[in-house]
């Protein structure tokens, strides 16, 4: 019987995607927890920054929003939106920035919709929109995407393109004049998806322990290559101890 939750699994898996020297642009919730876990577990020299302009803050507690005063605690710099988005587009720092995003829909090339469900003028649901996600997806060196693993979210055709992934394939970003970056991993509550180096299409890379390849595929609206799928490494005792007791001891995000 596993001694961790799927949310803990997602946070640890995402943290493993972050390396020393990376500059992490993240929002609130599980993306922030993943960045904090990386900083405390495997990438102590990564730098976390927020769209509000707080850069390299000392995150002793989990902030509940990017405007939470705890985000500004003992920062290297408290700037603003211009500094935050300038960091992404700077030709030196931009190459090291990793963005963590989420969305309502994703397609096989990692393009994201966080704007509307249904017709744009008469939507079934309207969301808050890009909120800077398009800038992140367009300019940073790579993105990590969190998604709930549901068929309604993994769709053949987006209702609206908010943030670019690999667009329509290998040359999609180049043809659109975007940077060479793009989505590197999609982390869900069932699996980890990655993108083929040649076709840029999504494939199943890892299933979480106890979750079958078939169940992952059944919960998607399009077929993916599952031939490379392996079982994901569960969180270690040390990773769980740090995640629970140092990153989120009040379980504000872990629940």
TrEMBL record:
Pfam families: CoA_trans. Keywords: Transferase. InterPro entries: CoA_trans_fam_I, NagB/RpiA_transferase-like. It comes from the Bacteria. This is CoA-transferase subunit beta. Transmembrane segments: none annotated. One of its GO terms (molecular function) is CoA-transferase activity.
